[in-house]
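[Q] Does anyone have a clean structure-token version of this?
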Amino acid sequence: MVKYNAIIFTGSSEKDEVICNSEGVPKKAFVKLGDKTFLERIVKEVRKCDRIEDIYITGMAESEWSTDVPVTFNEDSGTVFTKGKNIYEKFLLKKEKPAETAILLSSDIPLITADILARFIEQCENLSNGEIDGMFYYIIVQKEKMESKFPNSNRSFVEFKDNFQVCGGDISIINIRKILPFEKLMNNLMEKRKNALAQLLVLNPLLVVRFLLKRLTLDKFMYSLGKRIFKAKEGVYAVHSEDAEVAMDVDKIHQLKEVRRYYEENKEIYD
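[A] Here you go.
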């Protein structure tokens, strides 16, 4: 059974200030859910997943979080992609068996579980004929599934043809070596990750009109993304998840309330 390395992003930005100030914490990763912080819960579940080898925490110094869990810290700044690249160059390439594929997770999805993570990895392997050898695997959740489980999340959804609406999750798998030549593009996309139209303008302006007229299918978008942008016939995947927890990130106060509501109703899963 193949195991993968996980990178957890714990940096902070100006948009986190409202939540951090209301909770009295320096970073969103330290917001409490029950008796544990977001970061404690995420690391615990990642460690429980038998598909994970090592855990790297980026955007945080070791002195900021005291833990007995075997994790590697890397205090760096920059975009999400830049941080991932730093982990790759400083640690993954220097392992006894160098690794180029990593699982990326944000530190504000405290409702994920080891089982959810294992299912995502298995889905990615199935898309790639049993081996994760593609460039990029991006998890998505349909609107109906998201709002059924989290009716007050108030997430933004991207609408494709035939009223097919999805939102992105905060877990992905990336082959850092293969995608390094597109570093500038990836940084640009990360900066616009909350604005689908802005991302589309960066990726393929020719598809914007079809998107605005709701004539663009997700398959057509992914095909164009892979072939025209990353110059690969395959290897760029949208992974449909049944687990809405992967998209229940906490950016706003009402989303924190929704996460706490769900946690209180499902404590048997998390404690």
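[Q] Thanks! Anything notable?
[A] The first helix runs from residue 17 to 23.
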